[in-house]
Amino acid sequence: MQPEDLVRDHTIYACVMGSRAFGLETDGSDTDRRGVFLAPTALFWGFEKPPTHVEGPLPEQFSWELERFCELALRANPNILECLHSPLVEHVNDTGRELLSLRGAFLSRQVYDTFTRYALGQRRKLDADVRTTGTPRWKHAMHLLRLLMTVRDLLCTGELRIDVGDQREPLLAVKRGEVSWARVEARMARLAAETEEALGHTPLPPEPDRARVADFLFRVRRASADQPDAHHEVVQGAVHGGRVGQG
Hints:
The protein has 247 residues and is α+β, with helices and mostly antiparallel strands. Helix content is 56%, strand content 10%.
């Protein structure tokens, strides 16, 4: 089974991410597609394991195998958590719907560390641009502001919303370079302070609900293994591919 076959035949959830999901799209915006596929359990029984992620087959498309996706979500990876909360869902089946029902199980106070650590990395890049060229990359500055607003609001409410809503025009003004870097810096500092304050009274639990996620993954793996002829098809493929020894 080729990697693109896994995406084509076994995707359980697919969405649009990036500027379109954030409500910051313009005429020239790409369509960034992200998804989750469930590799058949029988594929794990051979020496060659299925991939943890696949690029393509469409342009700007990237998909994760379910276990890897859940692992990253439990670590509060910002890109993964935002993928789970995209308002632009292109495909979802019953397993995908159950994954979406677990969105709250992945959220914890760990988002403060992961989101702010990612934000600090982006800020260092912006500062390097300013030192080198005198100005930041304004698109990156806009997205950093968006990220800081997202984690502040997540800690305040316990809910992750990625559409910027009425902040669209102020953020696009930053992207167009219409706001001074000094004002952008001041806003970033204010958001960082508000985020730290929100951590002190957030409704989010200290840790994600790993047991609930583990139960979900076990059940879908077992259901896949119980499908008729699943093991037979993998063994036959190994035989025809010359990977089964004769003694």
